[in-house]
Amino acid sequence: MESTFPVVDMGLLQTEKRTETMEKIKDACENWGFFELVNHGISNELLDTVENFTKGHYKKCMEQRFKEMVASKGLEAVQTEIDDLDWESTFFLKHLPVSNVYEVPDLEEKYRNVMKEFALKLEKLAENLLDLLCENLGLEQGYLKKAFYGSKGPTFGTKVSNYPPCPKPELIKGLRAHTDAGGIILLFQDDKVSGLQLLKDGNWIDVPPMKHSIVINLGDQLEVITNGKYKSIEHRVIAQQDGTRMSIASFYNPGSDAVIFPAPELIEKAEEENKLKYPKFVFEDYMKLYAGLKFQAKEPRFEAMKDMETTVNLGPIEIV
């Protein structure tokens, strides 16, 4: 197994190296829960524009507010580890089922339009990736997209974050360790200031900043649907003393009323002891639970959903 962080060149899927590239994606999903995409089809020009607007907006509208928050909480002078707060400045955009890009305050019109265009490109990329995962898992094309669909289609949104320089990075995390609750996450991150780390075999490993790449990671729902073949991985952001790190994470998640359960084909293929490891639940119920337990281990969340399952009859599992 390769020990360097997996980087997948999507351009190679159209060449004789397709099989090798699919194998690389499979290995990344099974052993890392993360990989970095290059040649993903989103133009460098669009990425540069998104980055420039995001950094400009932070400077103009958010930096001062963040400094005031730090001052009001006395965070420069902390002596002990802070475990109930993240050193980050964020805002959220919703794209699906309904966009709020034109309602979020303080954004320049051009920035709104650019984020809308970026979201459309990311949505296509997410759906393309889900089909590549289906192919690797031996599921029919479109299975994962359908599993996420619910009655109104998937939920898709973006968390725009800046991680300003932090005087005590050893005491305050940029973002505390967690797994992502949702489906597939597409991250456009700063290529100069690092900070993102994932937990692998008990060690924290840096996710390398690479210009114009998109980092992909898998959320809890893909772990459930693949019956544990793919895992969501704990990750965190280490605050840095120099430089502000930009992070634009887009979450392609199931619709709120989508019913999530392990794919029947994968259960049939599983070894006896792994026949059915994961519960069946409505995504919104999982999110309600996650909201209070985000920075804790995911296993008790799955257990809690199992307990709920016995009390809620979700009807027969539809074998597609």
UniProtKB/TrEMBL annotation:
Its EC number is 1.14.17.4. Residues 108-135 form a coiled coil. Residues 154-254 form the Fe2OG dioxygenase domain. Keywords: Coiled coil, Ethylene biosynthesis, Iron, Metal-binding, Oxidoreductase, Vitamin C. Pathway: Alkene biosynthesis; ethylene biosynthesis via S-adenosyl-L-methionine; ethylene from S-adenosyl-L-methionine: step 2/2. PROSITE patterns: FE2OG_OXY. GO terms for molecular function: 1-aminocyclopropane-1-carboxylate oxidase activity; 2-oxoglutarate-dependent dioxygenase activity; L-ascorbic acid binding; metal ion binding. It catalyses: 1-aminocyclopropane-1-carboxylate + L-ascorbate + O2 = ethene + L-dehydroascorbate + hydrogen cyanide + CO2 + 2 H2O. It is an enzyme of class 1 (oxidoreductase). It holds the Pfam family 2OG-FeII_Oxy. Its cofactor is Fe cation. GO terms for biological process: cellular response to fatty acid; coumarin biosynthetic process; ethylene biosynthetic process; response to molecule of fungal origin. It comes from the Eukaryota. Belongs to the iron/ascorbate-dependent oxidoreductase family. This is aminocyclopropanecarboxylate oxidase. It comes from Anisodus tanguticus.
